[in-house]
UniProtKB/TrEMBL annotation, chains A, B, C, D:
Signal peptide bounds: none
Residues covered by the Gfo/Idh/MocA-like oxidoreductase N-terminal domain: 2-123
Keywords of this entry: Oxidoreductase
Protein name: Inositol 2-dehydrogenase
UniProt xrefs under InterPro entries: Gfo/Idh/MocA-like_OxRdtase_N, GFO_IDH_MocA-like_dom, Myo_inos_IolG, NAD(P)-bd_dom_sf
Length: 336, 336, 336, 336
């Protein structure tokens, strides 16, 4: 049984807390911290059986009983807190992105390497049953050499414009998961990116300097070609599909639904819409990534989403942004 | 190239004429007959390139150039015309049922046997791509020993009440195809039948002494159990599915649709309804059954739907009706 | 927060314990009892955080802090323990069947009624997302008047022959769930049953006086017809599907799978097999039935599976057995 | 009834001949020409009921009874024969591409316009039931404003290397259909193209200066983004799918199969592979495009695939080739 501390009690911090309580047998939460400790937080922590609530994450880092921390605070604090945590000898699960700045990421990875602690990045979709099933086929060799990797990733609705403004942009906020997925499913590195984008959902997003619709083409080191299509608003729900096509076959996934019920009536043959959004679709994967993290600590195994897996998608996002701005394909080496 | 005559220019007679013209390369239609030769029929025949239109089917039987006839006249004339045709040495394709009376059927089969002509019954669904795919799996041994055979057969709408009154009843008019399908898919004979039925679609059907909804259980000689569910009215269209389950696996079919398009919107994920009715769903099978018939003549092979295949479903229908009337399972041997 | 005691620490007792721990926020387990308290049980209980382990269930009944019990002991003890528990003023969740004997069931229901405690029977499939989606469509009126209800229920493999011998037979052991499902989905009572059965999977099952394959037709009070098909062995996995067809449309469910991945290769287009067996397929429903039970206690609401819901399937099973033995349809009134 | 002449008796010339004979009621074939009139061609023509076989297409153009011609000869002759045919006053159905050279295409379109004859290009996939169902949803407004258009187009196997060498390259030979499909489904013109390609199927194709795998991104005048993925070899068969996603929803199609049969066994749940290749998949569309052409003549309506529809995909292919060669997005205006 390892003891963990959660740094940041926002949405994702609570998602992890709940899934650890319910599903992760080998871990217990000893403390949670947040810059703002409200009564609501206190009472929520109590209901979860979390004994300590701090307003300073350093209390977590200073607790010798705590083996590992989950960095769930705001994005700009991921890097400095991870560095402090590593220096305090804590194993680290860090939410994505480690940092929007590639140099800061590299600094984190250096410190982590020197400290010899485990480090895992929160690309939870790698643990989703559907994407994992694709990956398993690829690893088993059933696809042969991958030739084409397609990821469809569309949100059910655009976030509030205030969120968009501070999100870092579509590529860093949303596509970052898909960039990771292309690497994960293909087993290869991205070498060049071309991004076509537009403002088709909401003109306010354009005024904020961002886009809401995109198609990104990615050339991979193994010769395969990846392609991602994104939209901030799919009126039918959260559309999360992927396909890997290769020399021996192809594997693709559909969306998950709440039930398999199909209703046939005069209007047509009607199935359910996809599960609404990431909490509904990916809840199990949030638990499974933490199980993996705990397992890597307990059994001293490498984590399945390591520091480089945190760095590469940021480089791809940088290249995608540059491609969009300059209207040309951009090599990762140009931004690395 | 063989020459055929069509006896009866109603709906099914014209369906066969069209499919022979379009799809059956080895046959041409030399004549068609109908008890009522209208101008419309004359002009239709001309458009089809059928050189002769008679009001007396005997002219077809007397034409030495005609090798084979399709008996598409009204049900009560199937048996006598088939007998005459056999005696005239013509090969016979006879629409189902040969006759509602089992003794008359046996008489037809005797005459046909003595005449040594080919005889095929119009159970076109055996030639449907979906049911054939099930049958192929069974014959290939992929199912192992069949244990359960399920047929779902529901019409898009009840026929006019005037039709119901002269139809011979649900079992003889509609389920007869499903009785044949159970035999075809299982490769075994029915030995006992239990029918549960009701009047749920239209009370007028009940007043006419018929039912519109039924579940029929069939015990087969090989130990397998068949089950058919029928409705005269499926508001979403013609529902035609089947499944064979056995010791090594199961195979089932879905409905055909006009396209594979699936529309995702706020209301749900909407696929197309089944093809509307038998002309839409089974058109290709009407052509293929005639191709098979022509092939059996040209290459002197047995037909794929022989006289016994015409007799057995009528016996099963008789048993089903008796079961419904008496509220108990009825053995085929009781009605044979 | 209510306190519960679990009576019986076999498979289903542990399933409920685990799901309460993980998913049921408003309940905690204070004690578990089993006639055989092993070290393994002690250590399992400790790992689950269950503070008390008894070899006598009466200690649970005598604990004034315990609000409710789950009767998970062997079938022949369900009735007497339920009676004692009711007399002790405990709310009761009783595994199915309450008893194979209808008179004992009625005795239990009488005592429960007098005691004024909540009583819920463990027909967990009512809480399955797929069957619930069908039921929701029926209740919403989307199906109109139900005409046909079909349940397919096939196990992945036959149980050991020793189990078969003491199981009470296919209808009491396996089909009992499907009998409940027909009532649940149709919203109507069964009035007559016809069962066709066979020994097609394993001749040892026949020697033990049981069957392994069945088709059961059920006439319902509202005129609809139900049909169940059962097999003890579907080589492709646990086959659990249902359909309700009515005047306004139909709704049907497919099997659940571990992922939606579809693999296309030279051999075909291959999807996953159904989830393996009831623990995999129905785990969430085990949690949800207990949530419902807890909710009925906390908010003083009727349970969703009441005493009559425990009685009726046993009556239907009795009628099915009699029908199979006598080769004729049997009215529920004959066995009630 | 109009009379047509077929120019070119190769594969596609014969496909059109057969489909006209079978399906197109308002047309009859009076003559066919080929530069090489063999005995085999003579006997095939006889079996099709085509009365005249010429070695000089000019005999067809000179026959005053012939209303329309189908130009099915080799690609380099499409333009000059179309010009002659227009000058002879014949309506023209011209196989794609009109010409690889955009100036020649424009010359053809000029002559056709002056002659006032009907002109249709052989983009048969517009008449495919699946793609038409997508288009119908778009035209009906069910998709709202289109945002993303995806076309997957993969052949079951690469053509012989000798064919590849003279094919004009992947974009002109294969993707040309997909370029047309993007325009057809989106209802908008392509303004810029970016092509990523590789040689992943067969290195010989690379040695011949061509590619076998590609992802092409297309910016459309209405702001939508199109994306095509191509492979010369999908081992599971001919993969032909599309999706349009927009402000009100999305519509997508699956592949067609020979039957809907699904086989469940220990190895998995196995459906059929897609129909093998274009003759199997698109046969009906070949008939329907000719019906449309005949209808446009008989009822003096515009054709559904006009001269500009023949020109635009060639311009897009030119831009795609330039993009691939230069590693940058290319505007259509650069190549027009």
């Amino acid at each position: 049984m390892i003891k963990v501390g959660i740094i940041g009690a926002g949405r994702i911090g609570r998602v992890h807390s709940e899934s650890i309580s319910k599903y992760v047998k080998g871990a217990e939460i000893k403390a949670i911290s947040d810059i703002k400790v409200t009564e609501e937080l206190q009472s929520w922590a109590e209901s979860m059986g979390i004994p300590n609530v701090y307003d300073d994450y350093r209390k977590i880092l200073q607790d010798p009983e705590i083996d590992a921390v989950l960095v769930c605070s705001s994005t700009n604090t991921h890097a400095p807190i991870s560095i402090e945590a590593a220096q305090a000898g804590k194993h680290i699960f860090c939410e994505k992105p480690i940092d929007p700045n590639k140099d800061k990421i590299r600094e984190v990875l250096d410190v982590v390497a020197k400290a010899g602690v485990k480090f895992q990045v929160g690309f939870n979709r790698r643990f989703d049953h559907n994407f994992k099933a694709i990956r398993d086929r690829v690893v088993a060799g059933d696809i042969g050499e991958p030739h084409l990797i397609r990821v469809t990733s569309r949100d059910p609705d655009a976030p509030p414009i205030e969120y968009v403004k501070v999100s870092g942009g579509l590529f860093f906020d949303m596509t970052i998961h898909d960039f990771d997925m292309i690497r994960y499913l293909s087993g290869s590195e991205v070498v060049e990116v071309y991004a076509a984008g537009g403002v088709l959902v909401n003109p306010e997003i354009g005024k904020a300097g961002d886009i809401d619709t995109a198609v990104i083409t990615l050339k991979l080191a193994n010769g395969a070609i990846g392609v991602i299509d994104n939209s901030r608003k799919a009126v039918y729900g959260y559309d999360q599909r992927a396909e890997v096509f290769g020399s021996k076959g192809a594997v693709q996934t559909r969306n998950d639904t709440d039930s398999t019920a199909v209703y046939s009536c005069e209007a047509g043959v009607i199935a359910e819409k996809p599960k609404y959004f990431f909490l509904e679709r990916y809840m199990q994967s949030f638990a499974d990534e933490i199980k993996c993290f705990v397992d890597s600590i307990v059994n001293d195994k490498p984590t399945l989403v390591n520091g480089n897996d945190g760095l590469q998608p940021v480089l791809i996002a940088l290249a995608a942004k540059k491609s969009l701005d300059e209207g040309r394909p951009v090599k990762i080496s140009e931004v690395a």
